Structure formats: C-alpha cells, structure tokens
Amino acid sequence: MSDTVTTGYSSALDGMKTAGPAPLHQFAALFARDTSLTDGTALLAHLQSAGPDDALRQRLAYQLSSWDHTDDGPWAAGTAPHTAERRAAICRALELDRATEELLSEIIPWAAIDAPIVIAEHFEEWRTPQRRTERDFYWAHYSANLLANGWDPSAVAGIDEATEEVVRRISDPTRKVAYQAKGLVVGYVQSGKTANFTGVIAKAIDAGYRMVIVLTGTTNMLRAQTQRRLDMELCGRENIEPDHDPTAHEYRYDDDWKRHKFINHGGRPSDSGHPDIERLSNYAGDYQRLKQGISALRFKRHDATKEFFHPANLYTSDARLVVAKKNASVLTNLVTDLKKVSARLGEIPVLIIDDESDQASVNTTSPAKWKEDSKKRTAINRLIAQLLTMLPRAQYVGYTATPYANVFIDPSDVEDIFPKDFIVSLPRPLGYMGADDFHDFDDDRPVGQRPLKTSKERAHVRYLSDEPADHELRAALDMYVLTGALKVYRERTGAGSYRHHTMLVHEAMGRESHRETARVIDKLWATAGYRSPTGLQRLRELYENDILPVTTAQTPGAAMPGSFEELHEHIADALGLIQPADRHGTPVIIVNSDPDLERHQQDLDFDQHGVWRILVGGNKLARGFTVEGLTVTYYRRAARQVDTLMQMGRWFGFRAGYRDLVRLYTTQDLHALFGAACQDEQSLRDDLRKYSSETAPESRLTPSRVPPLVEQHRPDLRPTGRNKMWNARLVSRSSPGEPMEPVAHPEKGKRALQNLRLWEPVLASAAATGTVAFRATGSKATYSAYHAVLLHNEMMAVLNRLQWLRDDIFVPERAWLNALAPTQLRQWVVLLPQQVDPTTGRMILGHGPFSIFDRKRSETGTLSAISESRHRNAAARIAGLDAHPDPAADALAAPCTAVLTLYPSVKPDTLTGARGDRIDPELVTIGFRAITPLSTGGGGKRLIWTTLDSGRPNDIVIDTPSAV
Q: How many Å apart are CA 734 and CA 816, to the nearest integer?
C-alpha cells in the first residue's frame, strides 16, 4: 500500500506543477488507479509514520514550499507569499482534511523567509509555465539530487524561485532577433552561490542554451572545485562516461564516484530526447586549445534550412560546458578557437557565468591611459568583451557577494559588464552563518555583560592583543583540538557526520610569513602536550569555561558528553585524525602560490578525502574557495577595502551540527572593521530593496538608470580598490562631530565675488552683535570673536550656493547637511575670530571691521590651510562635544547646534592701510571650518557613493533625503 500511496500522490503533485494546487486525493486516486485514496486516510497514515527522509514527504515538502514562494495564482486568493494565509490557501485548494492540514503544519511548516530582491529593466516574458515544465530535464534531476542529499525542501524551493528570476530575464534562446542581457546576482560570502548558478545553468540548458562558459576566479583550486561541483550535480555519470568506459575520465578513482554520489540521469540524456553535455574542460585540467578537435565547437543543424536557434535545431543538439579560470592565456585559447568557427557564432545561444565577477573581470586601467573614444582595458576585461562581441546571443550573469566594483562600472560602456538588465539580490539562506553572526550591533554593553544566550560576539569571538603572542595562538590550537574531539563524540553518538575539521590561520599574504607562521605552529604543537596531564588540564579549563557554557546557552539541545572525562578517548582520536601515525611531519598545510609546496597542498583536497588540518594561507584561500569544516579561525590580516575584507571571511558559511563550536580569534580593531563592512553590505541590500520593482512599482528604478548607492561607514574602509572606482562619485559624506574644512575656494573673478556677497548677511549679523572673549585651545589666553546665530535652513541657503574650483567639491557634505531634520540640526553659531594685532581689521562690504588672515595658495589654486587650532576648543564646546570648559562658549551652546568658524583671507602681503579701511572685495576669500553635533549622527559617520553614466553625465537621480 505504501508504494501505491507514494506513486499516486507523487504523480498527482507532478501534474500540479504547472496549474497549481488542485484536489490532491482525487488526483492521487486517479494516477494510482486506487479509489481507496480518495478519502485521504492513506496519506495521513503514511505521513504519520514517515521520517524526514521519506520520498513522498520530501516531494510534498518541496511542492508546498514552491507554492509558498510562487507568484499569485487564482488558487492563492490574493494571499502574500511566505505567510500562514498562503499556506491555508494551498491547503484549501488541495482540499485537505483538518487532520492532514494540522499534521503538515507540524512536519512541514511554512517558512517566513525573504524572497529575492530584483531590480530590472522591462523584459520580454518568455518563461511561460508550459515552457518551464515541458523542458526541465536537468533542473528536475538537479533539484531532486539536492533533496536526496539532505537539503531542506524550502531551501530547494528558494533556489527554484531565485534561479527563475535570473533565467526569465536572460533572452529567449529561440528569439529571432538577438539580444544580449547582462545581469548581476548578489549573494553572501560562502552562502551557496555555486548552488544557485548550477540551477541557472540547468534551467538554461533545458531552455535551449547550447554553450555555457563558467569563469571561476583566478586559482586552479577554485576552478577545480567548481568543475567538480558541476560534474557531480549537473553533468552526471552519463555525460562524464558517455561510452561506459571506466578508464576514460578523471573520476575513476574518486571515492564519491565509487559511492555513486555523482548524479545519475538513468541513461544518456540524448536517448530520451534531451541534450547531452559535452565537457570541454575537466577536473584534471583547464580549457586547452582544441587543435584537431575543433569540431567540438561546431554545432550541427538537424534542419539545414533553418537557423541554429530555431527550435527544430536547438532542441535536437547537445550542449557544451567550459569551466575556465580567469587567466589571460586560458581565455585567449577559448577566443582563438571560437574564431575558427565564427561563421555560426551569431546563431548560438550562449550563457556566460562569471563567478566572483568583481575579481579580475572589472576594467582597472586608469582613464589617463585611455585614448580618445577608446578605453584601454585590462586583459581579462578585454577578453570577456571579446567573447560578448563575438557571441551576440551570449548572456552575461555575474555572481559575487561583494558587488561594489560591478556597480561602479560605466552603464554606457556597451562592451563592459555593467548589469544593465537586472540585479538579483539573493536572500540569506537557511542555516547560513554570516558576518552579523559575529557581532552584536544593537548592544552597547561591554561584551562580558551581554547575555550569553543571545550575544553572538560573546559566543563566537575571542579577542587577541594587538601584537602576536604565542599563548594566544596556543589557545586557538587548543580550541581546534577540543572542537575536533566534540565532532568525533557527536558522530559516534549519531548526532552528525563530520568529514572535515579545519582551522585557518591568516596573518599576512607573504610566502615567507606563511612559512614562519607554520614553524611557530609546529613548535607550539610539539610542546602542547595534548596527551599529558598539563595539556589535558588546559583543555578541561577551556571546555568548562568556554565550550560548555556557550553550547548550553546557545544550542541547549546539542549532543554533549556528561563530563570532560568522557572526551578523553575522543581527544586522542581527534589528534590521530589531525596528525595520523603514518603521516610524518606537521599537521599544518601552507596554502599559497609557492610551487615548492604544491605537492603538500594536495592534502587539501576536500573532494577526495576527509581533511583534518591547520591551514596557513593568504590570498589563495581568501576568495571563492570553500574551506570545508572550518571551525576555528585565527585572523590578523588587515585590509582597507570592504570587498577584500569580506572575501577573507572564510569563517562564513554553513556549519550544520557544529555552529556552537565555531570560534573567531581576532583583534578588536579587525572585528570592528568587519562590523563596518557588514553594515556597508546591509546598506547596499537595503538600497536594492528600496529600488526594486516589487517593493515600489510606482517608482521603479532600473540598473542602468540609477546604480545602487554604496554606503561607507568608516572613512578608512573603502568599498573596493581605488583602481575599480574610476567611475564612482561621492554623493554624501556624513561627519557628526568631525570637522569639515574644504580648501578649493575660487581666488578671484565672478565666482569669488559672488561667494563673498553670499556671506554679506552673515557678516552684517555678526558685526551687529559685537565681540565676546573665548578661551584659546590648550592655554589660559583668550581671543575675541564676533558671532551670529542662524537657523539651519538659513545657513544652507548660503552653503548650497557657494561655488568651488571643481563641481564636486563639498557636494557630498552638502547633500548630507541638506537631509538633516530639525531634531538633528536646528541652528548654526557662526564665529569670526579676531587676531591680536588690531591692524588686520578691515571693513568687508561695509561691515566690520573683521580680522583678515594671510593664507597661501598651492600650485593647484587651493588654500593651503584655513583654520587655526587655538579657535577649535570654543567651536567644539558650543557643538556639545568633548572640550575644555569655556563660559562664553557655554552661553552659546544649545542642543542640535553646529558651528561655522569663518576666516576672511587674502594672499600674504596683500593688506595695506589702517584698521577700519575698506578692502577690495575681489581680494577676499572666506574660508570656513564647520563642525556638527553628535545629534546629526543617526547611522554614524559614513560616506555614500554612486556611479556616473558617461551617456548621461548630468543625469544621476538621487533621492537625497531617503538615501541619507
């Protein structure tokens, strides 16, 4: 009976994929030809006894999750996705009885997860439900394989939804007029982007794309890892071993191949009318010149009277797959081979997946080297541009977790990779451990005072001193051994499976520093005494003072021994895995580009065998490559770009069964840098959501029209490298409590005179108040100053109209100031300090006399300096900042008050005449130093960037108030 239930209900669910939910029991009875299924009792009994691995339960979970995700259909009755109301609508459409509905809500609850965020141009919808279901061979097998390997059905349904958002926005492969779409998919570091683009490839091949080029970072390790994933989860056994020759492929000795972990399609795909996949690269090697095998790039036409993209030819041809690292010689080989078959390239639907698309792909050549009407491109960018030019039906989809370099590309550069058609931001996946899992952003208490049950920082982060110390590295090694013993314990008690257990030590990028770090670890390991009473006592204290309280508070249901003594044998077994008896030498693997270490690095093959090692590395482990089983990280390497820093976060990822054991050893400064980077990342995602067509269809913005704003929370942490920011422009700079002192004032002429006249009302108001005495900074001396008080909008009326030596001067600061609310900034106090020498006083536009300051100009025309330090204490005191007491300043202080200190200036040796004489206004420049109160903070000090479009240089749309 169980087989009948599974067959009937699975077939019924398959039949509903296109039309949506319908009376489930009736359809199951029809497909099973068993009328006893119509009352639903058989399904209820089956589900009551079925475990999580039951095939029907998984199939039902996946379909329910898909309907939870999907767009509205008539059956949805207007309910929103990912809600209890949506699940109730599904159950009504399925005509489930109350008992079955309640059981499903218990064993397959609906998940309140985010949908992908989409910013897109208008596009031609070609992915009809019929086309999706009639050609889904590779997608169906891929999604079923994910479920069979333990993926949560809701997560698989989420991949279905997210990949569909991508595939529907690339061009219809059967389209008569070629169109080349370019898009960007934004994920999280180590969050399963490969799983997503594998799904996109599967759906694209099903739809008719017949050549797929996957560009994978810049290292052989990452390329091989990606190739194997695609071979295992997409290509499958039949495409790898088409002639059933076990000696004809590179996986013949692979344990996963022997255990049948590679997907099985049940026969050659072409035998059942589906395309085979011919691999033009393999796990053992990158793309090579095809030479005599150039025919592999020639696509046969079944009907010679029709173009290749006609369904009659497209659906009867096989697909090609190239997995290539972003290396100039490799991509040159591919371009050269494609040129040999150029006669038909215009008819071939091609999909280019660019993994880590902000690395190497972006043009970083300085504009100073560009020729007129021609950009000089870096090698990889130039070769990608060649591919896109040669392949007019090629679709480009970039994948990255750090998209800053991508959105700074000129949207009007048609040969470049700006995502002009769509940007898809993937939701945070279930079970993912990311940057914010190591920070407590909303808790200002000292870390030790935060509740261990809720504090992520207290649970997972261990602070290091600023300078390296052996005892701190030894503590991290102790944690690595202890967490390894707990993994052994949990596996033996049936609480999980732990093939890998790794520790990452990342201090610097130089090869010699890696060797030195490895020598230090070897010495510490040799003297650790893990089998001695002293070593065991250290582990006991670490277990009782760290591991046990964290796990008890954060994961109370996790498998733990009753006492430390129960761990003794597991500690010995963990040590044996880290440094087995038949392996002489060190438990350390150095991972860098040193060819002398290449054989040693073969031990770092997560695919071929379990890895229990301490990894010392730099850039080779800092992007894209997944460090499996990573539990303890000792991190000291600084970086000053958000993308570089975030990509070094190898401790992000999925930690099923040992999340409570994850530890990060780092300095407080580096931890703060990661916190700022995390905030920058979240700000970008918030902007993507704000601009998405789903969130605000009435004010929908597109990638080409308005690139997302990129926020920078720390001035010393830029979004990406300077060489990737030629097209970026700062549009807002917030500086609560920090001085602003622009120096690019025009010296003379109409602009200078206009600026001076803008200040005239301020000068008149200050002159009318007379002077007061302020205390000089750092001394008992005093100085006199005129002052005036202006409302914020009155001051901005002046600042907004000032002219500068360049159009971009003071624009970011002004944008921020304009956006401040009265509760943040209500008024300004203007100060005009007076010099001790009274002969410097002059009448300016009939007001004064005011002291005139000598100020030099640089060769570029800017003022070399403006303010004087002795005047700064009073300004800070008035603004409510930390400063020495000053009665005169305190009398002017008030909440939400900023200070502007003015310095009427001339070139040295310009002053002539006596005090009170008029001065030629064309000789005077009024410089200033502004400082705002902390009430202007909101989100703290930050910078906001955007992208210039060379096709519309004056047409950047920025909603300043909401952006800031």
A: 6
Q: What letter represents residue 252's amino acid?
A: R
Which has the closest alpha carbon to 313: 305, 325, 321? 305
Chain centroid offset of residue 141 CA: 29
Tell me which DSSP letter residue 736 carries. Answer: B
Contact 236, 262 (CB under 8 A): yes
Q: CB within 8 A of 346, min separation 6: which ones?
A: 178, 391, 392, 393
Of 200, 205, 198, 203, residue with least CA distance to 232: 198
In this predicted model, what pLDDT tens digit does every residue of 104-120 receive, in sequence order? 999 988 877 778 888 88
So where are the chain's domains? 1-112, 434-440+455-638+655-661, 738-809+820-936
Q: Angle at Cα 81 formed by Cα 78 and Cα 84, nearest 5°?
A: 90
DSSP letters of 366-401?
-GGGPBTTB----HHHHHHHHHHHH-TTEEEEEEES
Token pair, residue 653, equals 């990822």
Instruction: Examine the pLDDT at 962 and tell me if it is beyond 50.
Output: no
- Per-residue pLDDT reduced to its tens digit, 287-303: 988 865 677 888 888 89
Residues 6+ away with beta carbon under 8 Å from 353:
197, 200, 201, 212, 213, 214, 215, 397, 399
**Digit-coded pLDDT (tens) for 884-927:** 999 999 999 999 999 999 999 999 999 988 888 999 999 999 99
HSE-up of residue 909 (Cα within 13 Å, Cβ side): 1
> What letter does residue 110 receive in the DSSP assignment?
-
pLDDT at 631 over 80: yes
- Spatial contact of 29 and 35, defined as CB atoms under 8 Å apart: yes
Q: Is 489 helix (H, G, I), strand (E, B) or coil?
A: helix
Angle at which helix 41-49 crosses helix 2-15, to 10 degrees, equals: 110
Residue labelled with tokens 């490799």: 330
Cα torsion 900, 906, 909, 914 to 10°: value is -80
Among candidates 872, 855, 841, which has minimal Cα distance to 926? 855
CA dihedral sign, ordered 506, 507, 513, 519: negative
